[in-house]
Amino acid sequence: MTRKTGFLDVLNLTVLVAALGYFVDMFDLLLFPIVRQPSLLAMGVTGPRQIEVGALLLNWQMGGMLLGGILWGILGDKKGRLSTLFGSIALYSVANVANAFVGGIPAYAACRFLAGLGLAGELGAAVTLVSESMPRESRGYGTALVAAVGMAGTVTAALTGRYLPWRAAYLVGGGLGVLLLFLRVGIRESFIFARTHESGVRRGDFLSLFTDGGRLTRYVRCILIGLPMWFIVGILIIFMPEFGGPLRFSGHPSPAVAVAFCYGGITVGSVLSGFLSQWWGTRTKVVGVFMAAALLGTAAFLLGRGMGAAGLYALALWLGLACGYWAVFVTVAAEQFGTNLRATVATTVPNFVRGAVVLITNGFILLKAPLGLLGSAWTVGLATFGLAAWALSGLEDTHGRDLDFVE
């Protein structure tokens, strides 16, 4: 009876709007990888330059997310969770509409940067708002639902990118964000934030994360546990067609379909990880189990030979399922810190992980020449998993923690 009541706590407007916001966020975030090849071909980028230019544009987007993570996180703690949530949606919606009209790589890069800047604010604000608005006994359900609906946005993006011209796909992404802005009416600010706002406590002090050794260690560990997810998405899934040579694929996998299978798995995994964290009463053990499954799937991909399209799509589904601890990962970050820093942490941590794609992809490309495609992938992949395992081993489990405290 307790579990049923706890799950029913998610059926409210705040969780719904946060979930739909993350849906649009993920739709727009993954739209570029899905339309990368046709959009670059339309601009005359062919052959080996597809990887280099594609990585450049992805880095511009992720660089915007790094900067935006800090900006929106500070605003979330200083001005409120709602202003951050809807301000970020407005910015990336406008950027994606503009992206539909670009005619060259410089303009494309500028739009990806602005879109990344906007995309940076939504998830942290959504998770913080939901976590502070729900009973502590059931907030894992709320963040799981937000993540699950959000990940469904990537599947929708894959289908949109597959069946619509790439310019039309960007217009759809921007239009969805504009429509979502009308749902702002009726949503209230977090009561916990409002009380802290009135108390005069210093809020959104990003630099304070670096002035205390214990606080800094917690912060870094929260970032590192997310690295394997973006290695899998940023290298194995996005560049799956390029692995066809050394792995001797017997089929020709579609990037859009591979992304759809991967994020379909992430959607299921997000729900499963959130529910398991509630049922098992632990966050860190759930992250550990999913991380081990992700490592197993990575090894299966890089050691496989002669796989056909169906086998690759099945593996993409497994890798996505194993990456489904994203919901729990962001919740852990939000629960580690007090109300006066919670939005800053919950916004910067996932965006620093996303921004780490810049380091991951550049490392992958730099090592490709001396080590080969597979050797480079093994080296970068094992480094991300090793750092994540170290980070997880030192994090305190936060399941059921009372969030009404300050740093």
TrEMBL record:
Pfam assignment, any one:
MFS_1
* Cellular-component GO terms for this entry: plasma membrane
Q: Which InterPro entries match?
A: MFS (IPR011701), MFS_dom (IPR020846), MFS_trans_sf (IPR036259)
Annotated GO MF terms = carboxylic acid transmembrane transporter activity
**Domain of life, per the record?**
Bacteria
Task: Name the UniProt key words of this record, in alphabetical order.
Answer: Membrane, Transmembrane, Transmembrane helix
Q: Which residues form the Major facilitator superfamily (MFS) profile domain?
A: 14-407
Query: Is Secreted found in the keyword set?
Result: no
Compartments, as annotated in UniProt: Membrane
The protein's predominant localisation is membrane
Q: Where are the transmembrane segments?
A: 12-35, 55-75, 82-101, 107-129, 141-161, 167-187, 219-240, 252-274, 286-304, 310-333, 373-392
Q: In what way does this protein cross or attach to the membrane?
A: Multi-pass membrane protein
* Name assigned to this protein: MFS transporter
